[in-house]
Amino acid sequence: MKQLRLGVLAGLFAVAGVLSWGGARLWDTVDTLPSVPLAAPIVLALIAAVLTATALSLRSRLRAQRERRPGAKGVEPMMAARAVVFGQASALVASLVSGMYGGTGVYLLMNSLDVPARQDQAIYAGSAVLAGAAVVAAAIFLERVCRLPEDEEPGTAPAA
Asked: Within 13 A of 95's CA, how many CA atoms are on the CB side?
């Protein structure tokens, strides 16, 4: 399984942001711009919390297993792999969604902060971007927790 790359996530964020900004600009000239839902940052924050809780749980279980504590509950490899896949998928989707709300938020900041409702929409969009960044950070943390110990260098003998 390949690791998450910050460049890919940043690229997704940037492309989604530019497309969303252009779409918001076009939509606002044709009709009224749809609102940014209040639930967007809340859902992203919940996903970040679940990823963080999963990473902390797996980290403590893996530490107990490495230290061979009596009664330590091990971690099944498939469970760890599923957690990493969930984290990676969440990070990719959060990058796209954060870019979308970021582009919309930039458009709102540039054009219509006179209207109080648009100010609230800009705040919701900014909060969604921050929550999306929290999802990405939690996913990277989860991936680091579940990483396998690195193999020994080729050509070196194992320590006896």
From this structure: 22
Among residues 90, 96, 94, 98, the alpha carbon closest in space to that of 143 is found at: 90
Instruction: State pLDDT tens for residues 126-151.
Output: 999 999 999 999 999 999 988 866 63
Residue with tokens 């209040």, as numbered in its chain? 38
Pairwise CA distance, residues 23 & 124, whole Å: 18
Report helix angle 77-111 to 116-145, nearest 10. Answer: 160
pTM, whole model, 2 decimals? 0.84
- The CA distances from residue 76 to 55, 90, 146, 150, in Å, are 14, 21, 11, 19
Residues 143 and 43: their CA atoms lie apart, in Å, by 21
